[in-house]
Amino acid sequence: MPEGDEVYLTCKRLHAALAGHELVRAELRHPLLSTVDLTGRVVTEVRPVGKHLLLRLDDGRTLHNHLRMDGSWHLYAPGARWKKPGHQARAVLGHAERTAVGFNLHDLQLLPTAQESRLVGHLGPDLLAPEWTDEHAAEAVRRLTARPEREIGAALLDQAVLAGVGNLYKAEVCFLLGRSPHTPVHEIDAERAVQLSRDLLRRNAERPQQITTGDPRRGREQWVYGRRRCLRCGGPVTRSAQGRAPEERVSYHCPRCQP
Asked: Residue 73 CB: number of other CB atoms within 10 A?
């Protein structure tokens, strides 16, 4: 599932390509929206909220989507060949210069912009929100510590606690905290956990690479995520299950560096 920084970059690219333009092609190939016609509407803004994408229109409506595990947006010049098969396209939005195609968008809804909170109001503080303040940080810490016996890895993945952290950043934040993802929250420096989560997401928000080590060389981008051996000590990385189906995720940690 895409991390918050990937969604942020997707929205930035969609905004640059579509905002301010009238849609001359607007196909929503989703069972619930197949009869909706957005032709003639102007895209005013494309904004991320955690892992959610909000495409706002000039008629006071928002096209909301969540990428889930396999959703993606591609940008093409009009008439260019798509990189994925057409039957996977769920949204095609274009003007004279650019076409945005959303593939495998399982969650796609159209609602009044004033009612966006119906879909994103439950989320915790958005770690990539441009209006982030000390109050947001304090609220994030409060939510993170609300269940002190909960495993830190599960808490970091809970979008109602922090919006934007996925499995990669969960693993890397726990590594930088020096603790296993199965450690209870009450044993963790919660303020540092929030700050690390925000710092890592912000560091990678403007680029497709997700680098947590500071080393962009291939195979050295992360400390433990997806690795067999810890990048710091060289010891074996432990893989374990965390959470319950269908939210279960694989956790990575180094027993030596993360006691």
From this structure: 22
- Establish whether 249 is a catalytic residue: yes
Q: Dig out the tokens for 171 from the structure.
A: 């693993």
246 is catalytic: no
* CATH superfamily placement of domain 4-120: MutM-like, N-terminal (3.20.190.10)
Q: Output the six-digit token pair for 116.
A: 């966006």
Percent of all residues in the chain with a pLDDT value above 90, rounded to a whole number: 93
Can 216 be counted among the known catalytic residues? no
Residue pLDDT, tens place only, 16-54? 999 999 999 999 999 999 999 999 999 999 999 999 999
Strand order in the sheet with 43-49: 43-49, 52-57, 61-66, 107-112
Four-way CATH pick for 134-253: 3.40.50.720, 1.10.10.10, 1.10.8.50, 3.10.310.10: 1.10.8.50
Name the active-site residue from 51, 143, 170, 227.
Answer: 51
pTM: 0.93
